[in-house]
Amino acid sequence: FQMADPFLYNTGERSGYGCLGHELQVEHIKAYVCRPSYFTDKAVIVVHDIFGWMFPDIRYIVDLIAGHGYITICPDFFKGKDPWKPTDHWHDFADWMKKHDPMKVDRTFHSSCKNDNLTNSLFLNYIIGIIRDSEERYNLLNPTFFIFGEKDHTISYDQITLLDEKLKQHCKVPYKIKVYPGQVHGFAQLKPEDMKPVDKPYIEEARKDMIDWIKTFI
Q1: Is 185 considered catalytic here?
Q2: Catalytic pick among 113, 116, 194, 199
Q3: Looking at 74, 185, 194, 199, which residue is catalytic?
Q4: Which InterPro entries does the record match to this protein (predicted)?
């Protein structure tokens, strides 16, 4: 599909971030892990976006969730392949995608929604290509919260409406869809010092909604 430049997700200049967690090797996959200050057996797995597991914004989200009492893990789902970098030229994105099969990401999404061993799913406005032909895809096994930005051009409002209609027909577990006014793709990741004042209330609202959802089911 044709994308706007640059994905309407302005990575721009990011402030420095001193991560609270640490990196570790789990068999053949590296991961970033942050733990709360007290013991817990509750864990959250964070799936990074195209900028990869080392991107400061995603590590900030990992640390944020950990601060609410969860062992939070972000594996390198690219398995060592180079992530997309904010300095890369968007005309090269199609070539980069050939080395990062989006269907593998789609299968990760599908597995997390359909896996009996996972107790909760939360998707922060990175839903590209979830509208598929198979009706069975909408019979989710786990509570799922979809967070979208109103101006995220990677999924139209009509697609969000269709998703809601399909879930109403087929989903037998709790789910929630929420669209945040004026927000673009990737809005919910920004660190406080990188937020624009006009976006800050919606980002903070999405963060609170995220934590409330997690606490409800985990």
Answers
A1: yes
A2: 113
A3: 185
A4: AB_hydrolase_fold (IPR029058), CMBL (IPR042946), Dienelactn_hydro (IPR002925)
Q: Is residue 203 part of a domain?
A: yes
H or E element that contains 25: strand 22-26
Bridge partners (DSSP) listed for residue 74:
32
Q: 66-97 pLDDT, tens per residue?
A: 999 999 999 998 888 889 887 788 788 888 88
As given in the structure block, the two tokens for residue 96 are 């980069």
Q: Assess whether 171 carries a catalytic annotation.
A: no
Q: How confident is the model at residue 17 (pLDDT cuts 50, 70, 90)?
A: confident
Residue 200 within a domain: yes
* 4 Cβ contact list (under 8 Å, min separation 6): 153
pLDDT at 4 over 50: no
Residue 134 sits in which domain range?
A: 22-217
Q: Which residue has the tokens 């920004």?
A: 190
pLDDT digits (tens, 9 = 90+) for 111-131: 555 565 666 555 543 343 344
Hunting for tokens 């998707």 — which residue is that? 123
106 domain residue, yes or no: yes
Which is catalytic among the residues 63, 152, 194, 199?
A: 152
- Catalytic residue status for 194: no
Q: How many domains does the chain have?
A: 1
pLDDT of residue 39: 95
Rounded to the nearest 10 degrees, how much is the dihedral formed by the CA atoms of 185, 191, 197, 200?
Answer: 70
CATH of the domain at 157: 3.40.50.1820
Q: Is the entire prediction scored with pTM above 0.90?
A: no
Tell me if 46 is assigned to some domain.
yes
